[in-house]
Amino acid sequence: MSRPPYTEPTETDIAAVSEQLGREARGVVGIAARTADGSPTVVATAPRLADGSPFPTFYYLCHPEAVAAASRLEAVGVMNEFNDLLAEDEAIRAQYARAHEQYIADRNSVGEVSELAGVSAGGMPSRVKCLHALIGHALAAGPGVNPIGDLALERCGWSPAAEPAVAP
After folding, report:
1. Strand runs (DSSP E) across 40-142, as ranges?
2. Which segments of 22-89 does DSSP mark as H helices, in order?
3. C-alpha R_g of the chain
4. Which residue of 16, 55, 80, 108 is 20 to 30 Å from 121, comparing CA positions?
Protein backbone atom coordinates (compact mmCIF):
# COMPACT_ATOMS: atom_id res chain seq x y z
CA MET A 1 0.00 0.00 0.00
CA SER A 2 1.42 3.41 -0.90
CA ARG A 3 1.80 6.15 1.65
CA PRO A 4 -0.48 9.20 1.35
CA PRO A 5 1.08 12.54 0.39
CA TYR A 6 2.60 14.17 3.44
CA THR A 7 6.02 15.08 4.76
CA GLU A 8 7.49 13.98 8.06
CA PRO A 9 6.93 16.68 10.68
CA THR A 10 9.90 18.48 12.17
CA GLU A 11 10.10 19.73 15.75
CA THR A 12 9.46 23.21 14.30
CA ASP A 13 6.32 21.91 12.55
CA ILE A 14 5.00 20.33 15.76
CA ALA A 15 5.65 23.57 17.66
CA ALA A 16 3.87 25.58 14.94
CA VAL A 17 0.85 23.24 14.92
CA SER A 18 0.68 23.33 18.72
CA GLU A 19 0.68 27.13 18.59
CA GLN A 20 -1.99 27.14 15.87
CA LEU A 21 -4.22 24.83 17.91
CA GLY A 22 -3.54 26.50 21.24
CA ARG A 23 -2.70 23.10 22.74
CA GLU A 24 -0.14 20.36 22.32
CA ALA A 25 -0.41 18.71 18.91
CA ARG A 26 -1.26 15.02 19.34
CA GLY A 27 -0.50 12.09 17.09
CA VAL A 28 0.91 14.09 14.18
CA VAL A 29 2.56 11.74 11.67
CA GLY A 30 2.94 14.25 8.85
CA ILE A 31 2.23 17.64 7.36
CA ALA A 32 -0.23 17.07 4.54
CA ALA A 33 -0.57 20.66 3.25
CA ARG A 34 1.18 23.95 3.83
CA THR A 35 0.62 27.59 2.96
CA ALA A 36 2.88 29.26 0.42
CA ASP A 37 5.14 30.42 3.28
CA GLY A 38 5.50 26.86 4.57
CA SER A 39 3.14 27.09 7.55
CA PRO A 40 1.35 23.82 8.32
CA THR A 41 -2.25 23.89 7.12
CA VAL A 42 -3.28 20.24 7.42
CA VAL A 43 -1.72 17.54 9.55
CA ALA A 44 -1.95 13.80 9.06
CA THR A 45 -2.80 12.26 12.43
CA ALA A 46 -2.29 8.73 13.71
CA PRO A 47 -5.50 6.71 13.75
CA ARG A 48 -4.83 5.81 17.38
CA LEU A 49 -3.54 8.46 19.77
CA ALA A 50 -0.84 7.78 22.37
CA ASP A 51 -3.51 7.35 25.08
CA GLY A 52 -5.12 4.56 23.04
CA SER A 53 -8.09 6.59 21.78
CA PRO A 54 -9.15 5.98 18.19
CA PHE A 55 -8.89 9.17 16.11
CA PRO A 56 -10.79 9.01 12.80
CA THR A 57 -9.80 12.44 11.48
CA PHE A 58 -6.63 11.55 9.57
CA TYR A 59 -6.46 14.92 7.78
CA TYR A 60 -6.86 17.59 10.46
CA LEU A 61 -7.20 21.24 9.45
CA CYS A 62 -4.90 23.23 11.75
CA HIS A 63 -4.23 26.65 10.21
CA PRO A 64 -6.27 29.22 12.19
CA GLU A 65 -7.37 31.19 9.13
CA ALA A 66 -8.51 28.02 7.36
CA VAL A 67 -10.32 26.82 10.49
CA ALA A 68 -12.07 30.21 10.80
CA ALA A 69 -13.06 30.15 7.12
CA ALA A 70 -14.58 26.66 7.49
CA SER A 71 -16.39 27.76 10.65
CA ARG A 72 -17.92 30.74 8.84
CA LEU A 73 -19.31 28.43 6.16
CA GLU A 74 -20.74 26.07 8.75
CA ALA A 75 -22.31 28.99 10.64
CA VAL A 76 -24.37 30.00 7.60
CA GLY A 77 -25.60 26.48 6.91
CA VAL A 78 -23.64 25.64 3.76
CA MET A 79 -23.63 21.99 4.84
CA ASN A 80 -27.38 21.82 4.12
CA GLU A 81 -26.77 23.08 0.58
CA PHE A 82 -24.01 20.51 0.05
CA ASN A 83 -26.23 17.72 1.45
CA ASP A 84 -28.89 18.72 -1.07
CA LEU A 85 -26.25 18.60 -3.83
CA LEU A 86 -25.27 15.08 -2.77
CA ALA A 87 -28.90 13.99 -2.86
CA GLU A 88 -29.45 15.46 -6.34
CA ASP A 89 -26.19 14.82 -8.21
CA GLU A 90 -25.25 11.19 -8.84
CA ALA A 91 -21.79 12.05 -10.21
CA ILE A 92 -20.88 14.15 -7.16
CA ARG A 93 -22.24 11.41 -4.90
CA ALA A 94 -20.07 8.78 -6.63
CA GLN A 95 -16.96 10.97 -6.46
CA TYR A 96 -17.64 11.68 -2.77
CA ALA A 97 -17.90 7.92 -2.12
CA ARG A 98 -14.52 7.44 -3.84
CA ALA A 99 -13.06 10.23 -1.68
CA HIS A 100 -14.33 8.36 1.39
CA GLU A 101 -12.57 5.18 0.27
CA GLN A 102 -9.33 7.06 -0.44
CA TYR A 103 -9.48 8.73 2.98
CA ILE A 104 -9.79 5.36 4.70
CA ALA A 105 -6.96 3.90 2.60
CA ASP A 106 -4.72 6.85 3.46
CA ARG A 107 -5.40 6.45 7.18
CA ASN A 108 -5.03 2.66 7.04
CA SER A 109 -1.60 3.09 5.44
CA VAL A 110 -0.48 4.48 8.81
CA GLY A 111 -2.35 1.95 10.94
CA GLU A 112 -5.65 0.13 10.99
CA VAL A 113 -7.89 0.58 14.02
CA SER A 114 -10.82 -1.82 14.21
CA GLU A 115 -13.08 0.79 15.84
CA LEU A 116 -12.67 2.98 12.76
CA ALA A 117 -13.34 0.33 10.11
CA GLY A 118 -15.43 1.92 7.37
CA VAL A 119 -15.42 5.35 9.05
CA SER A 120 -13.76 8.33 7.40
CA ALA A 121 -14.51 11.94 8.34
CA GLY A 122 -16.76 14.88 7.61
CA GLY A 123 -19.85 12.74 7.07
CA MET A 124 -18.47 10.85 4.08
CA PRO A 125 -19.69 8.92 2.20
CA SER A 126 -23.36 9.84 2.47
CA ARG A 127 -23.65 13.27 4.08
CA VAL A 128 -21.82 16.50 4.82
CA LYS A 129 -21.19 16.91 8.52
CA CYS A 130 -17.87 18.75 9.04
CA LEU A 131 -16.44 21.17 6.51
CA HIS A 132 -13.20 21.43 8.48
CA ALA A 133 -12.48 17.75 7.79
CA LEU A 134 -13.55 17.97 4.15
CA ILE A 135 -11.45 21.08 3.46
CA GLY A 136 -8.52 19.37 5.19
CA HIS A 137 -8.93 16.36 2.92
CA ALA A 138 -9.24 18.54 -0.18
CA LEU A 139 -6.04 20.42 0.68
CA ALA A 140 -4.13 17.22 1.48
CA ALA A 141 -5.32 15.18 -1.50
CA GLY A 142 -5.30 18.01 -4.05
CA PRO A 143 -8.05 19.23 -6.36
CA GLY A 144 -10.47 16.76 -7.89
CA VAL A 145 -10.45 14.12 -5.14
CA ASN A 146 -13.06 15.35 -2.66
CA PRO A 147 -15.75 17.29 -4.53
CA ILE A 148 -17.43 18.69 -1.43
CA GLY A 149 -14.10 19.67 0.11
CA ASP A 150 -13.16 21.39 -3.16
CA LEU A 151 -16.48 23.29 -3.23
CA ALA A 152 -16.13 24.30 0.42
CA LEU A 153 -12.56 25.49 -0.11
CA GLU A 154 -13.65 27.53 -3.12
CA ARG A 155 -16.63 28.96 -1.26
CA CYS A 156 -14.86 29.81 2.01
CA GLY A 157 -12.82 32.64 0.53
CA TRP A 158 -9.55 31.53 2.14
CA SER A 159 -6.73 31.01 -0.31
CA PRO A 160 -3.72 29.32 1.23
CA ALA A 161 -1.83 28.93 -2.02
CA ALA A 162 -1.31 25.50 -0.46
CA GLU A 163 -0.44 22.42 -2.41
CA PRO A 164 -0.07 18.85 -1.27
CA ALA A 165 3.14 18.57 0.75
CA VAL A 166 4.38 15.85 -1.61
CA ALA A 167 3.41 15.73 -5.25
CA PRO A 168 1.04 12.78 -5.78
Report:
1. 40-45, 59-61
2. 64-75, 78-88
3. 15
4. 16
